[in-house]
Amino acid sequence: MSTNPPPRTPAARTTTAPRLSTVPPTTISTISSSQKPRQLSHLHAQLAQLTAHVADLENLLRMTAVQVESVRGLGGYAGGMFMAASKVLGEETVTGAGLGSNAMADSNSQKREERERSTGT
Question: Which GO terms describe its biological process (predicted)?
Fold first, then answer.
C-alpha cells in the first residue's frame, strides 16, 4: 500500500538562516581561495556569452520589425485583391447565387421580394 505524503505548506517550513554553501564549514576557506579565480573566470565567460546572445537577439528583433512592416503591406495588397475580385465578380457570386444554380437565384429573389413587401417599399 502506498501512502501519499502530506502536502507541503509555507507555514510548515522552519525559519533558519539562509544556507550559504553546501560545503562543510571546515573546508570553505581552503576551497574558496583555490577555486575563486576559476569560478570568476567561468562567470566572465558566461557573461561574455550572454552579452553575445543579447546582441544577436537585438539584431533579430530589428529584422523582425522590418519584416512586420512588409507583412503588413502584403496584407493590404491581399485585402485589395479580395475587394477587387468581389467588385469584378459581383455581389451575387460572393453570396453564392452565381454558382450556376437557378434555384438558389430564384430563392434569393423570392426572399428579396418578401422583404420588400414586408417593409412596404
Answer: attachment of spindle microtubules to kinetochore
